[in-house]
Design a protein that fits this description.
Chain lengths: 107, 116
């Protein structure tokens, strides 16, 4: 199974600033990487798939980049509603696997 | 608006069988792929299995898992046998994006605790 490692575990950023979340795969997953956002008590929401394609309705401040084993989710100009847990998922190698998540909280 | 709602017992005894249901509203369960995913306490998410016409299961759980689709009720079901404390987790149902392996719609999840 491909091991997905996210860093940092917790990231504290001030509203209006930029956040960069990292996801690393134990072997190449090409561009088959998705990012999700989850808020307490809510269903996870798909943000990015194909490493860089925003899902329907996702604001342009969310940007996914990377390929192979190194991926980044960048959120420019953080809004209050962006503070949540983010996790990545590879779906290049079956079975798909997820990272442990990064909690983004307000500084 | 498509919504998924998981339901089932919050508490299961060790060695018992877990049965969960995912009710789908706003869309038909036909001709789409649906997955169950779980998050054990303190751990990352784990994909359990996917079903459309046929089912695929995570090899780590394959011997204990059965998934099914009830088109008359518009529901997806999960059955996990021989439950242990390691199966304590929040269980999610999710819709696969097309025939792919990422997930474009999730339920809120339901907590299942295994304890005597």
């Amino acid at each position: 199974e491909v091991v997905m490692t996210q860093s940092p575990a917790t990231l504290s950023v001030s509203p209006g600033e930029r956040a960069a979340l990292s996801c690393r795969a134990s072997q190449s997953v090409g561009y088959n990487l998705a990012w999700y956002q989850q808020k307490p008590g809510q269903a996870p929401r798909l943000l990015i798939y194909g490493a860089s394609t925003r899902a329907t309705g996702i604001p342009a401040r969310f940007t996914g980049s990377g390929s192979g084993t190194e991926f980044t989710l960048t959120i420019s100009s953080l809004q209050s509603e962006d503070f949540a847990v983010y996790f990545c998922q590879q779906y290049n190698i079956w079975p798909c696997s997820f990272g442990q998540g990064t909690k983004l909280d307000s500084k | 608006q498509v919504q998924l709602q998981e339901s089932g017992p919050g508490l299961v005894k060790p060695s018992e069988t877990l049965s969960l249901t995912c009710s789908v509203s706003g869309a038909s369960v036909r001709n789409q792929h649906w997955s169950w995913i779980r998050r054990p306490a303190g751990k990352g998410l784990e994909w359990i299995g996917r079903i459309s016409g046929s089912a695929d299961y995570n090899p780590s759980l394959r011997s204990r898992v059965t998934m099914s689709v009830d088109t008359s009720r518009n529901e997806i079901s999960l059955r996990l046998t021989s439950m242990t404390a390691a199966d304590t987790a929040v269980y999610f149902c999710a819709r696969n994006h097309g025939s792919g392996w990422h997930f474009d719609l999730w339920g809120r999840g339901t907590l299942v605790t295994v304890s005597s």
